Amino acid sequence: MWIAWIEFDILLGEVHSLKEKRSLVRPLIAELKRRFEVSAAETGHLDQHRRALIGAGAVAADRAHLVEVFDAVERFVAARPELELLSARRRDLHSED
């Protein structure tokens, strides 16, 4: 069994409140879950209105599938015009590691 996750450090555009931040982050997380069938959540910078850490994770039988999924997830997030992707960090582990 392979376990993988990715964490995005994101700078949001013209956002002036936590309410505006939520209006951008919630739909992004929902779309990641729906489109890529991953678990996703806001994982950091919770009290900053222009920054967000968003994490996604998945489990699969083979590593190649996870690499393919998270490549697509990263392209999807990077292509969003309302945010700037500052960094993306990935990790994958085999259950026997």
What's the layout of helices and strands?
Blueprint: E1 2-12, H1 18-36, E2 39-44, E3 51-60, H2 63-78, E4 83-94
Antiparallel strand pairs: 1-3, 1-4, 2-3
Highlighted features:
single chain; 97 residues; alpha+beta; 2 helices; 4 strands; 40% strand; elongated
Question: Describe it for me?
Answer:
- The protein has 97 residues and is of the alpha+beta class.
- 36% of the residues lie in helices and 40% in strands.
- It has 2 helices and 4 strands.
- The protein has a 4-stranded antiparallel beta sheet, covered by helices on one side.
- A hairpin with a 6-residue loop joins strand 2 (39-44) and strand 3.
- The longest helix is centred in the first third of the chain and has 19 residues, at 18-36.
Short account of what is shown:
This protein has helices at residues 18-36, 63-78, and strands spanning 2-12, 39-44, 51-60, 83-94. The chain is of the alpha+beta class and 97 residues long. A hairpin with a 6-residue loop joins β2 (39-44) and β3 (51-60).
Q: What summary fits the major beta sheet?
A: 4 strands, antiparallel
Which residues sit in consecutive blocks of at least 5 with pLDDT less than 50?
A: none
How many angstroms separate the termini?
10 Å
Order of helices and strands: EHEEHE
Q: Work out the strand percent.
A: 35-45%
DSSP strand tally:
4
Structural class: alpha+beta
Q: Strand order, biggest sheet?
A: 2-3-1-4
Rg over C-alpha atoms, rounded to the nearest angstrom = 14 Å
- Give the mean pLDDT: 95
Q: Helical percent range?
A: 25-40%
What's the overall geometry?
Answer: elongated
Number of helices: 2
